[in-house]
Amino acid sequence: MDRKHSDVLFVVLLLAAVAMTALASQFYDRYLGSQNTDTFTVADYLTLASHSPQSHLIVTGTLATDAELQAANKLSERFGIGVKDEALVESRSGLLLIGNPSTNLLLERFLREEYSSDAATVAVVEENLLIIVSSPEQAERAVSILSNFQQEPVLLSPKASLGIAKVAILSFLLALLLVPAILVLVESHRKRGIAQATESTDDHKIAAIAAYARKYEGQGFSEPQIRSWLEKYGYDSTLVEIALRRA
Questions:
Q1: Number of helices followed by number of strands (H, E) in the chain
Q2: In this structure, are residues 5 and 180 in contact, taking their beta carbons and an 8 Å threshold?
Q3: pLDDT tens digit string along 37-81?
Q4: How would you class 232 by CB atoms within 10 Å of its CB: exposed for 0-12, middle for 13-18, buried for 19 or more?
Q5: Ordered structural domains, the chain, with CATH
Q6: Which pairs count as long-range contacts for 227-234, CB under 8 Å and 24+ apart, including other chains?
Q7: Assign residue 132 a region: left if phi > 0, alpha if psi is -120 to 50, beta otherwise?
Q8: How far separated are the first and last CA of the chain, in Å rounded?
Q9: At what angle do helices 136-147 and 66-79 cross, to 10 degrees?
Q10: 3-state DSSP call for residue 159?
């Protein structure tokens, strides 16, 4: 396969990998990120909260981190919902609890499964929304997604993972699909290097043969004689022909 065809094939495989990853992203959002849409989803909850902010309350933990407090204030500005410390909360419904079991004890009471710090999670539990974050990065990501909940398909679920699952899956798929394209590119460069090295070697051989031919032509030997000697000693006939034309 020549250089031009290799480059074209590389581009085709690269575009195919990107297209397949985009399709996989659509599939993930539709079938894996949007399960259980027949129940009350995170998006449903946020829609209700935005329409009746006076009936809801954002609750931070007594041991809340600065990142959790900042996230609570940003969500308060976005939805117009008030913010209170868990120690001052009497209601047990209409709450948006932010933090994790280590910083918000009230949030821990509503957890229905084992807590994991690997990824931010948002879950509708009874009449409350649990916003579980364990780092400033997770808190920032949760705020970003919740603030734009109408454009986030992942929130069409009662329990939405806002971690790296989708990114990891799609990155792995893209890397896997890029393997053939990378192999084509590497093989193309390898063959090109071999061809260049061979061409360089042949140029040296032709120059040496041409010098040999000129020397013996100067001594009166004919071109057929010189060609016969060179081919007899194993020189490639094509290189000999080129060298004799240059001599």
A1: 8, 6
A2: no
A3: 345 788 889 999 999 999 999 999 999 999 999 999 999 999 999
A4: exposed
A5: 37-157 (3.40.50.12090)
A6: none
A7: beta
A8: 33
A9: 10
A10: strand
